[in-house]
Amino acid sequence: MSDRSPTQSASANRRRTSTIGPTSNRSSAAIIPDRSSSLSVSTDTRSHKLVLITGATGAIGRATAVAFAKAGKYNLALHYATANEATREKLLSAIGDVLPAVIDVALFQSDLSSFEGVRRLHREVVEGFGRGIDILFLNAGITGGKTNPTCLNDIPIGIFEDVWRMNCAGPILLTQLCAPRMEQQGWGRVVFNSSIAAFTGGGVGPHYASSKSAIHGFVHWFGANVAGKGVTVNAVAPALIDDAAMLGEMDEGGKKKMTEKIPVGRLGRPEEVAETVLWLVSTGYMTRKIIPVDGGYHPY
């Protein structure tokens, strides 16, 4: 894979918003949209772990950002890919609704389909907060635009390359950039967002399933490599989550057929994936694991 230039760089829009919510109980909290450098972090929050969530405007990313914000003890660097104002505002609104008194949140825009975009995101988060990243949730990903192919040759090799780069190579590069600091301080958490498709092949196609199964091999190897250094490495593997981005234009009849395949009898919620991510972050004894969040769909 060649190292291509990004189509979008991390945004340099440097305006700072006022405190969100009543100032009487949220005086130290702030959301800083599109802040890419020289972020002023209040003294009250410097003891908080710094969390970077990629793909934070998607349903699972947004739910996870909200869950971390509710916990009230993490500073959040939230990545989003496209300059979609409605999507960005939805994320800001969701965080603002639960923003506790002492937490700093900054948004960073970058195209993670290029390695330079990955490096820029890491650099600007570290420069903005003036510290390294403690917790990494690698949530951004793509399906490649081809779904349910009937033949291997339905998927051009270029789509394989694009999906592997976005879903596998980019997240591994970001882990390479964040890991040295985690190892040095003796504490870190890395969580990938995989998919049940990595186990089953799924319905999207071999390009997507193979990009996710490659992550599983990385989790097993790297988790063992850093287990004695206070760093845990895991992945969640969701399936059949009730999310428009995942289900597309599926009608209620299609959803009903999918639901019938799930032992618990319903689709999953993004918040249930988020809860699993927070649990993996909270424990230092769980590592090298792939945790299905699938309502019993796949008995692993």
UniProtKB/TrEMBL annotation:
<keyword id="KW-0521">NADP</keyword>
<dbReference type="InterPro" id="IPR002347">
    <property type="entry name" value="SDR_fam"/>
</dbReference>
<dbReference type="Pfam" id="PF13561">
    <property type="entry name" value="adh_short_C2"/>
</dbReference>
<dbReference type="InterPro" id="IPR020904">
    <property type="entry name" value="Sc_DH/Rdtase_CS"/>
</dbReference>
<keyword id="KW-0560">Oxidoreductase</keyword>
<dbReference type="GO" id="GO:0016616">
    <property type="term" value="F:oxidoreductase activity, acting on the CH-OH group of donors, NAD or NADP as acceptor"/>
</dbReference>
<dbReference type="InterPro" id="IPR036291">
    <property type="entry name" value="NAD(P)-bd_dom_sf"/>
</dbReference>
<feature type="region of interest" description="Disordered">
    <location>
        <begin position="1"/>
        <end position="29"/>
    </location>
</feature>
<comment type="similarity">
    <text>Belongs to the short-chain dehydrogenases/reductases (SDR) family.</text>
</comment>
<dbReference type="GO" id="GO:0048038">
    <property type="term" value="F:quinone binding"/>
</dbReference>
<feature type="compositionally biased region" description="Polar residues">
    <location>
        <begin position="1"/>
        <end position="28"/>
    </location>
</feature>
<dbReference type="GO" id="GO:0006633">
    <property type="term" value="P:fatty acid biosynthetic process"/>
</dbReference>
<protein>
    <recommendedName>
        <fullName>Ketoreductase (KR) domain-containing protein</fullName>
    </recommendedName>
</protein>
